[in-house]
Amino acid sequence: MKKILLFAFILLCQNLSFSQTDSTTVSFVAYWSLGDMYEYKVSKIQQQTKEGKLVKDRKSEYTALFEVIDSTETSYTISWKYENDLGNNYNIPEELLEKFEKYEFTEVKYKTSETGEFLEILNWQEVSTLLSAMIDDVVIVLGAEDKEMEKVLEKSMKPIKAMYATQQGIEKLVIKELQYFHFPMGYEFNTNETLTYVDQLPNMFGGNPIKADAKVFFDSVDVDDDFCVFKQELDLDPKDSLELLKLVFKKLGITDEKFEEALKTSKFEIKDRNTYEYYYYPGLPHRIETERTSLIDINNEKGTRVDKTIIELQYQEE
């Protein structure tokens, strides 16, 4: 497997004429070439507390290969190939994992603009079919000795399968890390100002978009290494978030009158705090850490869920 030693590449770029010398503005533009490969480690952490007690603490990791498989004057085509961590993601016992060998790897092919801005997944239907079949097999295997469990799993997986059946669902949920990877590409930022804006996040369950108050600000810029650190914060609208929660429960068939009454006085808050460490030339992240904190209060029962994603460039010699 081809490896690119990025340290040497960055050192070489410092002496080229197009290296940026002004730290007050940063432009994120892709300078990639056909055949470029970069390896990333992606870690996902999920923690849940209920009434102040930790009830879930799960971590999964996988290695992904970012490869430029086509390059034109107006676009790039990228292959993002990664290994599925089925044991952690679906709580599959180790002795049953051999039944899922055909789902070991997933390859996503997608297109970006000439500046590296994410445009679309090209093989989303192929990915959708693979994930749907994998979910069906998970239900069959885990419910093999308990038909009641199989029915519960089938019902709980139904809304997930519905989301995975659309291009938007694949792009926003299945490979959400690519949205982070390409977040700044194609934009120029004033590093001395805080950018504030109102974002609209897609509702994967078919409801209205979720509004969010957002801002982006820079911690540091190193023009010698074409490197910067910036942060993104999003506070999702509490009313929109609560409507999303209601829709999720409805999709899962949780609709009894007592529960509906409890939801009327419930609170649901979602906050994102993301840190990007980025080589704006050649347009690649060194490290991205995202954290979504969800605070829920239903019928005076309080719970917290924290979802973290960490994307780290792996520096390896040939």
Secondary structure blueprint with pairings:
Layout: H1 6-13, E1 25-27, E2 37-50, E3 53-71, E4 75-83, H2 86-89, E5 105-113, E6 118-121, H3 124-142, H4 147-164, H5 167-174, H6 176-181, E7 188-190, E8 195-201, E9 210-222, E10 227-236, H7 238-251, H8 257-263, E11 267-279, E12 284-298, E13 301-313
Antiparallel strand pairs: 1-7, 2-3, 2-13, 3-4, 4-5, 5-6, 8-9, 9-10, 10-11, 11-12, 12-13
Helix pairs in contact: 3-4
Architecture overview:
The protein has 318 residues and is an alpha+beta fold. The chain has one domain: Lipovitellin-phosvitin complex, beta-sheet shell regions, CATH 2.30.230. The protein is 26% helix and 42% strand. It has 8 helices and 13 strands. It has helices at residues 6-13, 86-89, 124-142, 147-164, 167-174, 176-181, 238-251, 257-263; strands at residues 25-27, 37-50, 53-71, 75-83, 105-113, 118-121, 188-190, 195-201, 210-222, 227-236, 267-279, 284-298, 301-313. The strands form 2 sheets. An 11-stranded antiparallel β-sheet has the order 6-5-4-3-2-13-12-11-10-9-8. The chain has a two-stranded antiparallel sheet with strand order 1-7. The longest helix is centred in the middle third of the chain and has 19 residues, at 124-142. The chain is globular, with a radius of gyration of 21 Å. The termini are close together. The relative contact order is 0.17.
